[in-house]
Amino acid sequence: MGAAHSASEEVRELEGKTGFSSDQIEQLHRRFKQLSGDQPTIRNLRKGPSGLADEINFEDFLTIMSYFRPIDTTMDEEQVELSRKEKLRFLFHMYDSDSDGRITLEEYRNVVEELLSGNPHIEKESARSIADGAMMEAASVCMGQMEPDQVYEGITFEDFLKIWQGIDIETKMHVRFLNMETMALCH
């Protein structure tokens, strides 16, 4: 009884921390177990401050996934905007690898190269050109016409918000939970 009480208390704590329902937490736990191979942690691809890859436990996984929670239909405009900013801040930090509050060309190149590395048809130089072009476009959106001697230091979070303005991330950047009937059709 003590273990069951402790587990349900832990689930309630996770519900409060992440906004997921107990059913959603259960579904995400099953997915976590699949991804981790039934291990208590998943290896993070980004290196931590010590230079070693961080390990992500289930609570960390849930916290990360909570950024991708679907928009609640009861949310008012202010709450929707706050959710949007949280998602964009999370995305911004994925690019800002040194956490200095600015995405530099080098950081952006690294992310683009990593994302495209699985495609055998795109060489590293092509990925670099894609990143360079996107960064030039970001500079023009954020700074307008630049002078020839003007240097763009990188994308701040405010710039990042400008770039993503008008793009519907609320419905595109979220976890979709399938119900059991839908899942049965997939098998």
How would you describe this protein?
InterPro entries: CHP3 (IPR052490), EF-hand-dom_pair (IPR011992), EF_Hand_1_Ca_BS (IPR018247), EF_hand_dom (IPR002048). Pfam families: EF-hand_6 (PF13405). By secondary structure, the protein is mainly α. The chain folds into two domains: 1-66, no CATH class; 73-172, Recoverin, domain 1 (Orthogonal Bundle), CATH 1.10.238.10. 58% of the residues lie in helices and 9% in strands. Helix 5 crosses helix 6 (124-143). The model is unreliable at 180-187 (pLDDT under 50).
CATH hierarchy: architecture of the largest domain = Orthogonal Bundle
| Extended strand count | 4
Task: Please state the average pLDDT score.
Answer: 81
Helix and strand composition category? mainly alpha
Cα gyration radius (Å) = 20 Å
Described by strand count, sense and barrel closure, the largest sheet is: 2 strands, antiparallel
What strand line-up does the widest sheet have?
Answer: 1-2
Q: What is the approximate shape?
A: globular
Helix content: 55-70%
Task: Determine the strand fraction and express it as a percent band.
Answer: 5-15%
Q: Number of domains in the coordinates?
A: 2
Which segments are poorly predicted (pLDDT under 50) over 5 or more consecutive residues? 180-187
